Amino acid sequence: MGNIVVIGAQWGDEGKGKIVDILTEQVDFIVRFQGGNNAGHTLVVNGKKFIFHLIPSGILHAKRVCFIGNGVVLDPEVLCKEIDTLAKENIIIDQNRLKISKKTHVIMPYHRLLDRCREQHKSGQDKIGTTGRGIGPCYEDKMARVGIRAGDFQDLNFLKQKIEKALIEKNILFQHLYKQKPLRADEILEQIKPYVQRLLPYLTDISEELENARKQNKTVLFEGAQGTHLDIDHGTYPFVTSSNTVASSAPTGTGTSCRELTRIIAIVKAYTTRVGSGPFPTEEQGEIGEYLQTNGAEFGATTGRKRRCGWLDTVILRDSVRLNGPTEIALTKLDVLSGLKEIKICTAYKYKGKTIYYPPQEENSLTQVTPIYQTLPGWEKDISKIKQFSQLPSATQNYIKAIEQILGIPVKIISVGPDRTQTIFRD
Ligand code: GDP
Ligand code: IMO
Ligand code: MG
Predict the structure, then answer these.
(1) Residue 36 CB less than 6 A away from ligand 2
(2) Which CATH code is given to the segment(s) 105-199?
(3) Where does residue 276 fall: left (phi above 0), alpha (psi -120 to 50 degrees), or beta otherwise?
(4) CATH of domain 268-425
(5) How many angstroms is it from 347 CA to the middle of ligand 2?
């Protein structure tokens, strides 16, 4: 079957966790390649809910091995807590089940502090609405070449020296701009030491692991976090996250070659949501938005914030298709649309008097577009227990076919509820 890449096609929270969990049956290894614990991936197994922020969503399947790739930013405290939470459920995550790249950048306490200070310091409309987890500041240090990497855990003296260097500029900001106490390297080291020592056995060379997997004809699932329109280059900049979320960052974020990618699955929620600030052309602030928010239980899995909701936007999805090159689509949360008389799909935008089919490229231009909608009939029936495409109401089938036609990509997986079992496979 080959290797699989799973990415979000919208602004995150498309239901990637659920789909990764299901697809894990078909692979041997699951690897995260970007983002950090800004992600919140929810799985429901036998009625029990699990939310993963750092550990790949394949971990619930015994005998599968999970990797955290170099492209991830890793908060050691959060990872240890996630391991402890799973231990309470008798799921033991030792170094045979989870391996971390020595090149993975580490989120330090000063990254979290900087993230929060910055957001607080910004005025209303400039606030990004970050998750406050230190994601941006950690990636900044990586690019500025003053980042701490997991491999540095092996030498505490070296680690302390690196923290000292990283704090030089930050302490000026903390003291003079954000009116905080300056931070001390020895105190930071003491704070993170217990987690550093616990994680040491998990460190390895993920590039080598993936090479071995290839030689043994084993298959790998690359688990994306966030969504295409939160991508640092291709998303709605500056209202984006700080990593590349598109499928092509899977090889760079893990240390493998582009030739390793066979199936690329774009996860598309049957409507659109966004958490945090930024433009959202099809947002519905009235009754429809409420309906989707309530029916879809649209609360952030990481921060608990209410998600903004609106109709499906195939303009941004068309962009996602060219950015990711999906071989198939997994359409999720279709059940949430049940009960609506009419369902709208945004097929194009009006922008500066013209009809356009791809998002304009200029910063903030997405705030100036007017969506053009196609209206389809809705369906009343509860579809959450349906197991076959042919049993779906004809209006539901037509909605799926309309999406396939507009995007030119087959919808091969349809999710009609949060549970593993509430999934329809085509073919
Ligand atoms: P992710 O970040 O892409 O993994 O998505 P989240 O876990 O943040 O958000 C998706 C939410 O929708 C979770 O609460 C899931 O349990 C839930 N979910 C996933 N698929 C479906 C579905 O088909 N129907 C419904 N009703 N809920 C779903
Ligand atoms: P999953 O993997 C939805 C959003 C934040 C904010 C912006 C920047 O669960 O789909 P950051 O903390 O990354 O600097 O915040 O990105 N964001 C997400 N939105 N799902 C996510 O992850 C997200 N991760 C970050 O809300 O608007
Ligand atoms: Mg999420």
Answers:
(1) no
(2) 1.10.300.10
(3) left
(4) 3.90.170.10
(5) 25
Task: For residue 359, give both structure tokens.
Answer: 């998002």
Ligand number nearest CA of 298 is 1
Q: What pLDDT, in 10s, does the model give residues 68-86?
A: 999 999 999 999 999 999 9
By the 8 A CB rule, do 293 and 307 touch? yes
* Domain edges within the chain: 3-102+202-264, 105-199, 268-425
- Ligand 1 site residues, Cβ closer than 6 angstroms: 8, 12-18, 40-42, 44, 296, 301, 332-333, 335-336, 415-418
Q: What is the CATH number of domain 3-102+202-264?
A: 3.40.440.10
The mean pLDDT of 393-401, rounded to a whole number, is 98
pTM, entire model? 0.98
Task: Give, using CA atoms, the residue closest to atom 6 of ligand 1.
Answer: 13
Distance in angstroms (rounded) separating the CA atoms of residues 398 and 407: 14
* Both tokens assigned to 192: 């993170």
Ligand 2: residue whose CA is nearest its atom 25: 38
Nearest CA among 323, 99, 128 for reference residue 212 = 99
The beta-strand segments (E) located in 177-302 are 203-204, 220-223, 263-269, 272-274
Nearest bound ligand to the CA of residue 269: 1
- Beta-carbon contacts of 185 under 8 Å, excluding residues fewer than 6 positions away, are 160, 163, 164, 167
Using the CB atoms, write b or e for 306-341: b if 16+ within 10 Å.
ebbbbbbbbbbbbbbbebbebbbbbbbbbbbbbebe
Q: How many Cα neighbours within 13 Å face the side chain of 46?
A: 1
- Report d(CA 1, CA 16) in Å as an integer: 19
> Which tokens belong to 176?
């003079």
145 conformational bin, left if phi > 0, alpha if psi -120 to 50, beta if neither: left
Ligand 2 atom nearest to CA at 8: 10
Confidence band (pLDDT; 50, 70, 90) for 300? Answer: confident
Mean pLDDT in residue range 124-150: 96
Question: Strand locations in 121-277, DSSP E?
Answer: 203-204, 220-223, 263-269, 272-274
Beta strands in 185-289 (DSSP E): 203-204, 220-223, 263-269, 272-274
